[in-house]
Design goal:
By secondary structure, the chain is mostly beta strands. It contains no helices and 10 strands. The relative contact order is 0.32. The protein has strands at about 1-5, 10, 15-25, 35-40, 45-50, 55-60, 65-70, 75-80, 90-95, 110-115.
C-alpha cells in the first residue's frame, strides 16, 4: 500500500489549499479513509474522514472550512482547505481510518499558514 500526499505549501491566513492523496495497492472507494495532521511538537490528530459510502466527518477545529472528497476513477482522496489559520500549520497525512489500522504514515505534505 502506498499513499502519496501532495499539495502542501506556504499560504497566508485566510487562503486556501487543496491536498491530494494518490493511492496504489489499495482501493480507496471500499475503505474509510482519513486525513490526519501533526503540528510541530504536538501529537498527530484526526482531521476528516470519508467512508466507502461517501459519508464525511470532520474535527470541530476544521468543520465548515475543510472538505474531504474522493475521485474513485483516480483512486485519490482530496482535502479542500479554506479560510486557513496559522494553527492549521502541520504535516498532513492521508491513511486508513481508524488510526490503529495504519502501518506506515509516509512523509505527508507540509502546510504552513503565515499570519
Amino acid at each position: 500500500v502506498q499513499l502519496q500526499a501532495s499539495g502542501g505549501g506556504l499560504v497566508q491566513a485566510g487562503g486556501s489549499l487543496t491536498l491530494s492523496c494518490a493511492a496504489s495497492g489499495i482501493i480507496l472507494s471500499i475503505n474509510t479513509m482519513g486525513w490526519y495532521r501533526q503540528a510541530p511538537g504536538k501529537q498527530r490528530e484526526w482531521v476528516a474522514t470519508i467512508t466507502s459510502g461517501g459519508s464525511t466527518n470532520y474535527a470541530d477545529s476544521v468543520k465548515g472550512r475543510f472538505t474531504i472528497s474522493r475521485d474513485n476513477a483516480k483512486n485519490t482522496v482530496y482535502l479542500q482547505m479554506n479560510s486557513l489559520k496559522p494553527e492549521d500549520t502541520a504535516v498532513y497525512h492521508c491513511n486508513k481510518y481508524p488510526q490503529w489500522l495504519v502501518r506506515d504514515w509516509g512523509q505527508g505534505t507540509l502546510v504552513t499558514v503565515s499570519s
